[in-house]
Amino acid sequence: MKRLGIVLQDTFLFAGAALGQSCEQWGGKMVSVQGTVQVRKAGESKWMPVGLNATYCPGDMIRVLENSRAAIVLSNETLFRLDQNTTITFTGVEKERTFLINILKGVTHFFSRKPRRLKVVTPFLNAAVEGTEFYVRVTQDQTFLSIFEGRVVASNTAGSLVLTGGQSAVARAAQAPVLS
Q1: What does the chain look like in DSSP terms, one character per residue?
Q2: What pLDDT, on the 0 to 100 scale, is given for residue 84?
């Protein structure tokens, strides 16, 4: 099964981060922690408590446990909120300065004061986002995407549709996304 990947494309780049080493430019900074939130640094096996203003690099994994929440500011000033029972990995950089975040499970909410080009890839739905605020929930059998502001092309191999502010879609395996 594929994992959910969020692709953030803007003007930041990680320069040559190797596993276990700090990167030259961070991709995300922890700005709020409520409850139990842990990090497993790249190349490490032990989960440690996160700290406010801690920065994260490719390969770092964050998990938010039951009855907990966290907020991360990405280096492009996008606020990224993680709900309880959510696990993400800062994956790295692809061509054209595209930063990847894998959402292994849970609920995420993105907000930016300015539109950012984002591409969301999940097992059930891909979304090319040109907006300022959206919400993604990944479960074992579907992906739910809700757009508060902006425009999204939600697609998978079975079909696609365009979403604008106030619209939502659900996609399941081998089924086209549908308005919800």
Answers
A1: -PPEEEEEESS----S--TTS--SS-SEEEEEEES-EEEE-TT----EE--TT-EE-TT-EEEE-TT-EEEEEETTS-EEEE-TTEEEEEEEEEGGGEEEEEEEEEEEEEEEEEEEEEEEE-SS-EEEEEEEEEEEEE-SSEEEEEEEEEEEEEEETTEEEEEETT-EEEEETTS--EE-
A2: 97
Which residues of the chain carry a pLDDT beneath 70?
1-22, 92-100, 113-123, 126-131
Cβ contact 98:85 at 8 Å? no
